[in-house]
Amino acid sequence: MTDTPSARYRVAVVGASGYAGGELVRLLSQHPAVEVTFLGAGSSAGRTLGEVHPNLASSPLASMQLRPVDDPAAVSAAAELAFCCLPHGASSSLAPSLLDDGAKVIDLAGDFRLEAGDYPEWYGFEHPAQGWLSKAVYGLPELLGEQIAGAQLVANPGCFPTPVVLGLAPLFGAGLIGEGPIRVDGKTGVSGAGRATSESTSFSASDGSIRPYRAPLHQHTPEMERALELAAGVSSAVVFVPHLVPTVRGVVATCYAPASAGASTETVVRCLQQAYSGEPFVRVLELGEMVDVKRTIATNTVELQAFVDPRTTTLVVIGALDNLIKGAAGQAIQNMNLMLGLEVSTALPKVAAYP
Amino acid sequence: MTDTPSARYRVAVVGASGYAGGELVRLLSQHPAVEVTFLGAGSSAGRTLGEVHPNLASSPLASMQLRPVDDPAAVSAAAELAFCCLPHGASSSLAPSLLDDGAKVIDLAGDFRLEAGDYPEWYGFEHPAQGWLSKAVYGLPELLGEQIAGAQLVANPGCFPTPVVLGLAPLFGAGLIGEGPIRVDGKTGVSGAGRATSESTSFSASDGSIRPYRAPLHQHTPEMERALELAAGVSSAVVFVPHLVPTVRGVVATCYAPASAGASTETVVRCLQQAYSGEPFVRVLELGEMVDVKRTIATNTVELQAFVDPRTTTLVVIGALDNLIKGAAGQAIQNMNLMLGLEVSTALPKVAAYP
Amino acid sequence: MTDTPSARYRVAVVGASGYAGGELVRLLSQHPAVEVTFLGAGSSAGRTLGEVHPNLASSPLASMQLRPVDDPAAVSAAAELAFCCLPHGASSSLAPSLLDDGAKVIDLAGDFRLEAGDYPEWYGFEHPAQGWLSKAVYGLPELLGEQIAGAQLVANPGCFPTPVVLGLAPLFGAGLIGEGPIRVDGKTGVSGAGRATSESTSFSASDGSIRPYRAPLHQHTPEMERALELAAGVSSAVVFVPHLVPTVRGVVATCYAPASAGASTETVVRCLQQAYSGEPFVRVLELGEMVDVKRTIATNTVELQAFVDPRTTTLVVIGALDNLIKGAAGQAIQNMNLMLGLEVSTALPKVAAYP
Amino acid sequence: MTDTPSARYRVAVVGASGYAGGELVRLLSQHPAVEVTFLGAGSSAGRTLGEVHPNLASSPLASMQLRPVDDPAAVSAAAELAFCCLPHGASSSLAPSLLDDGAKVIDLAGDFRLEAGDYPEWYGFEHPAQGWLSKAVYGLPELLGEQIAGAQLVANPGCFPTPVVLGLAPLFGAGLIGEGPIRVDGKTGVSGAGRATSESTSFSASDGSIRPYRAPLHQHTPEMERALELAAGVSSAVVFVPHLVPTVRGVVATCYAPASAGASTETVVRCLQQAYSGEPFVRVLELGEMVDVKRTIATNTVELQAFVDPRTTTLVVIGALDNLIKGAAGQAIQNMNLMLGLEVSTALPKVAAYP
């Protein structure tokens, strides 16, 4: 943190003790144009960053103390932009105060991703800030970048909706998807369940295990539907069956859609390649190549693969990304870069270590 | 091996050096009514069982020598029933000689699972024994047990078709599945790729990796279609996208089918429970329970779960099993038990160690 | 459970809800000479075995209800022999009542493994039942089988002391180990930490992690020293550094001892092979072979390997076993078989599934 | 590669197709002061970097073609400094030509780490370039930085010797280690075996496995002894028993040494903390903290922990690092930075992603 320019943006991470919060702080501490001025936490308040995240013990921010999250005024006094990494339901209570004080907010929970009417059914609460909810912009930079650049409040997408919407939206736009529901089969590493402990996410229970969870009522379902409407203008029903697999990081979403008459493997691959030709973080694979989530770990890159099965007129799009980076902290920084007028890829790794 | 009855059946394992062959020998060596009298192998011929499979070094068969597989007469002289665990394409050359000599054969490769016309496209060879092919019985004991009991040649099913067909056939039979293609999303552990080494199945490449493979042209696709026809009398197109996930054993198949008007989560669960109420190796989960492949490892048990998503009129059936047992060696022994008139569950583990 | 002889031994598992308890019940339910008549649990009391251990949902005992552990009279009324799988400190309170009632007890905790004076330092409590403690027999069947056969109370060994003592005792007896401390480096899978959840044993924290724990004050240290005294009559100081590695089951103990003048790789291997030549569960590897814990999983087998490094006059013995079977539930059943006069290997798997 | 300064150093990676080579290229492509001008390979020559390392498909060097390694003149024409990542035995044939042409060389194999007389016994070949061997500097920057800065040929240390020597050398220097052999117990992830495939490093064989290998004759043994002599001036015999554990990256070395009279946990921790107080890549843990290799993955950081067991007068030092970074490619770049007069930590990650 030596060569700090005088005018850096001050940012807060509210909810810094979880996995997404930890990755956010790690990446922000390497960002040349921002300064982390506030770290907030619930039960970890009072401890230092290095104590809460031992992997950050060598970070320049290691000795920074986490402060309680119940004082919004302290956050908006300390920072021009705040990332909220709180449990679902908490940021819709906190964020309005920050926003009223003029701060920009990027929310990593589900609190600003849906329409007000969807919250009781899918998240189990009545939305307490419907005025701000209606102003929130869905933070998928490759598809909604202009709106994000001008937003005060951005709802950072869920890990599974990101590859699904990136994969399907251009194909809808090009008329390559026919009528009918979209079936999305998800596979995720265990870090998607967060840092809180439970028997089902213990090593002993998860190693050697492949199992579905929360199907067919996962809260990413309506998010996928709404994001497809926002990004592609289509109203399409989605069924989503996520599965836990024994790895720490990474999600793979395999989408089965009805192929339209003009769709072939050639046309769908070219459509996606054209849609993302200038994008630094979307890699559309060539015909015959297969995505591998391992090549996206600890990067902001998403890999997309598509083909058409003529025997069943099924269009298949498969997307892979790191749920904690492109599916959370990395995408949040990408959104921040847009909101602050910075180069969109600043401080975001693109190339993965291997193996 | 103390309390051996005098009149045990003599069996051969031709292709004993791979993973399925090894598991077959392990289970057969604990079977009270059979005696393993011949072990065959390709490049491992001449070595002992304990050398080829160090986990069997304490087995009573450890010092038995593997013999070459190119002398069918030696096999049929030694055994009344032969398991063929050879690479696809090899058993259709070998098995006819054994069958002509009067031996019973259970083939674990794909050589006798399809109709003759399918081989060039899906397996890349012209079938050399179409006469025997037409007499082969598809070895799914819960659905085709009577035919298996009377068969001389049984085609042991592939690991993925087993849960797919067990899950879908009764629902087709009950009219709970509507018109339209079936989408099958598969997840498999790495042992499904066999014992031969390759860079993509190395630990370094596979740990941390989730990736599709051979989609949409995996050879289990036509097998699922044909087995559904044999077991349920339906002609339904299937698209199949398998994925490799970082575990050794186990497959999970998630099937997305159009729900018919009468289908609900309640009706589909009850239909499956009724279909398999007397079956020792099929466990249909209650509403709300989720399959976990970990509970099937090293057993012959398959877990089935089903629900209907009314938002998209999608019927979802999920099946989980151990690819090397119920998906290969265990099911082969289950078939053998039927063919030899033995109690069907003899020598087949049902309850898994955990965790 | 069909061919039950009329006079089977009635056994209790007190503490059936953990991993060792679950494996014990699974193995006992396949034992031809015993009947499980009591299952006890703490907070899981009132639930059925199948609910507490979903892997046992197909077991004949699945619907048996777990009862509270606070009524010793109920246990001794129900069973002639009780396994105690309670947390350290709990069985020394419970067991005396059972023993006073005449029941045989096999304790899987550390409560009866040491001498009274060691408990305050290593386990943090004053031993409440020193009379029974002095009558307890250390349950290492290969070395102390005669005493076990006549015992009313057996202290089942810890997972790490088992391979260490099996590996070292015969070498001490043959004078192949010189003066000086023994250094034991342990590696264990995560199931050794039990079923209780903690952040450090979550999948996300443990996958990709190799780390020492509780060194140099692990409570298996004095147990190794005392067991070496009991089994080999030597008084040797041990330092023990265990490490957690990312696998579920299995421990490997690598012991570094001073080689005596007569020790060579040849002599130490032959000494161990001779010591265990008639033992069904100890496999001493040939020169040049390396142990692999994977070959012991879900079996009661221990693999031992030994060599001498003349450059440093170091004798190295490496032992590998499944911590939940030979390191807990399997060894407990082996002890039970001895105590009840049954064939020692009854109901104990010897050959592992692979891979 | 846009803002390239005019005067960057030109570097070659000879042997770019393996894991260490791939990581080297990935890190070098992000280094502001060097330009990769030559990539060499054996059987992969003719393919592009992106084809050989699909994780680098988005790298600016992705389309660079790998060239054959058999033309030293092409290498020295293209580069001022060459990294040799060839199999043991190959760089001692190639490097002399490069060195004679005036190029600097950093060798990542074992070819320049020992004295000439050790090669026949430990590597199985007679050293072909003993003149250059005698000029090689052992590349452990924290201990031999000055010599490295002036060297033309640097032998990059092996992955295990690095933590062992970093951990022990200052303690020897402070007189805290007594007389007697050092026992080193190693645990390594599977990537240490390299990219070449073998049955034992397949996912199916390595997952769930803990096993020793090549003990007690691993070629890192004499390297540890010699490096301790170079760095601490002591002549101490080492026995080394490495074990494979189921993770991809990371090594943990647990060293058991005789404690001298003055050694206590307090003194050994303080000694190491003082020795490395200014070093960016060595983190000495506080009393009671335990190393975790997971916190070093994809970084150049090594974690060190030390304590004394007074019961056995044993001093234990445990070191953890990423075998491909601090144990190979990262340390090589650290050496390059010293040799080229650049800031030592340039382009080297210090803080790990987590979990």
What's the gist of this structure?
Four copies of one chain form a homotetramer. By secondary structure, chain A is α/β, with parallel strands linked by helices.
Structural description of this entry:
The structure is a homotetramer. Chain A is about 30% helix and about 20% strand. The first copy, chain A, is of the alpha/beta class. In chain A, the strands form 2 sheets. Chain A has a 7-stranded parallel beta sheet with strand order 3-2-1-4-5-7-6, with helices on both faces. Chain A has a 7-stranded mixed beta sheet with strand order 9-10-8-11-14-13-12. In chain A, a hairpin with a 4-residue loop joins strand 13 (about 300-310) and strand 14 (about 315-320). The first copy, chain A, starts with 8 loop residues before the first strand and ends in a 16-residue tail after the last helix. At the A-B interface, strand 8, strand 9, strand 10, strand 11 and strand 13 of A face strand 8, strand 9, strand 10, strand 11 and strand 13 of B.
Lay out the secondary structure.
The structure is a homotetramer of 355-residue chains.
Chain A: E1 9-14, H1 19-28, E2 34-41, H2 49-52, E3 67-68, H3 72-78, E4 81-84, H4 91-100, E5 104-107, H5 119-123, H6 130-135, E6 137-138, H7 141-149, E7 153-155, H8 161-173, E8 182-188, H9 203-206, E9 211-212, H10 220-232, E10 238-244, E11 251-258, H11 265-275, E12 282-284, E13 302-309, E14 314-321, H12 325-339
Parallel strand pairs in A: 1-2, 1-4, 2-3, 4-5, 5-7, 6-7, 8-10, 12-13
Antiparallel strand pairs in A: 8-11, 9-10, 11-14, 13-14
List low-confidence stretches of chain A: 1-5
- The first-to-last residue Cα distance of chain A is 30 Å
Structural class of chain A, by secondary structure, is alpha/beta
Order of adjacent strands in the largest pleated sheet of chain A: 3-2-1-4-5-7-6
Silhouette of chain A? globular
What portion of residues of chain A belong to β-strands?
15-25%
Mean pLDDT of chain A: 96
Give the H and E element order of chain A: EHEHEHEHEHHEHEHEHEHEEHEEEH
Q: Portion of residues in helices of chain A?
A: 25-40%
Tally of strands of chain A: 14
Largest sheet of chain A: 7 strands, parallel
- Enumerate how many helices of chain A there are, as a single number: 12
Q: Which quaternary structure do these chains form?
A: homotetramer
Gyration radius over CA of chain A: 20 Å
